[in-house]
């Protein structure tokens, strides 16, 4: 029996959930205060394929920047 080599480029880690177990929905923007996802994104996460999950992550980057900007304005 011979072992077959696995090409490291073919091994893809699953897309992790952004959940940090701080689960409260912000009433003003509809985002979870912990992970910044919408309730629909949270609900659908387990059925999303990797492409959809990566798209949510990309959206979260933009939301985080928006959230930071809003909080800077509030702190002034």
Explain this structure:
- It is elongated and about 65 Å long.
- The N and C termini lie far apart (69 Å).
- 42% of the residues lie in helices and 0% in strands.
- With 76 residues, the protein is mainly α.
- The chain has a domain at 24-75.
- It has helices at residues 39-44, 50-75.
Overall pLDDT, averaged? 88
Molecular shape: elongated
Secondary structure tally: strands: 0
Strand content: under 5%
**Helix content, binned percent:** 40-55%
Topology diagram in text:
Layout: H1 39-44, H2 50-75
Features:
mainly alpha; elongated
Short description:
With 76 residues, this protein is mostly helical. It is built from two helices and no strands.
């Amino acid at each position: 029996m011979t072992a077959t080599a696995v090409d490291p480029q073919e091994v893809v880690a699953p897309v992790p959930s952004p959940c940090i177990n701080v689960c409260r929905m912000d009433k003003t923007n509809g985002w979870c205060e912990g992970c910044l996802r919408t309730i629909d994104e949270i609900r659908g996460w387990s059925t999303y394929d990797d492409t959809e999950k990566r798209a949510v992550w990309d959206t979260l980057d933009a939301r985080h920047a928006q959230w930071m900007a809003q909080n800077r304005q509030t702190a002034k």
